[in-house]
């Protein structure tokens, strides 16, 4: 098939199909936006439920968010309450690990004085 014929077929397809695709997208847009809003509201409920159960988690929302996303991503069909129950032990474990890390000495220079000893 020649390049000109291929280009002509593509243009015909585009002219005929693009308006139909565009119409489908416009018709489905309210459903898509509604689903996104519902998902966001559900995520807020999950987060608020977790913070009411464990108020100490409010100090590290970054850790909470990453673990919640991990649990929800690996178990997408769970209810929000079940996601919270699965995430709490993992969040506590990670928070305990982070507490044990000494971040104060990272910026300090080590003492390089040998004083004649090796």
Terminal-residue CA separation: 79 Å
* Radius of gyration over C-alpha positions, nearest whole angstrom: 27 Å
Q: Provide the succession of SSEs.
A: HHH
Number of helices: 3
Summed over residues and divided by their number, the pLDDT gives a mean of: 85
Can you tag this structure with a few keywords?
single chain; 118 residues; mainly alpha; 3 helices; 73% helix
Task: Please describe the topology of this protein.
Layout: H1 3-53, H2 61-74, H3 80-100
Helix pairs in contact: 1-3, 2-3
Structural notes for this entry:
The chain is an all-alpha fold and 118 residues long. It has one domain (3-100). Helix content is 73%, strand content 0%. The protein contains three helices and no strands. The radius of gyration is 27 Å and the shape is flat. The termini are far apart. The mean pLDDT is 85.
Quick summary:
This protein is an all-alpha fold and 118 residues long. 73% of the residues lie in helices and 0% in strands.
């Amino acid at each position: 098939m020649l390049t000109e014929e291929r280009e002509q077929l593509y243009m015909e397809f585009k002219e005929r199909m693009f308006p139909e695709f565009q119409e489908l997208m416009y018709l489905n847009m309210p459903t898509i936006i509604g689903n996104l809003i519902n998902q966001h509201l559900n995520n807020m409920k999950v987060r608020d439920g977790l913070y009411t159960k464990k108020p100490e988690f409010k100090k590290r929302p970054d850790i909470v968010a990453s673990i919640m996303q991990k649990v929800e991503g690996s178990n997408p069909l769970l209810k929000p309450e079940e996601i919270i129950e699965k995430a709490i032990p993992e969040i506590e474990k990670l928070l305990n690990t982070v507490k044990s890390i000494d971040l104060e000495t990272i910026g300090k220079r080590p003492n390089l004085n040998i004083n004649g000893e090796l």
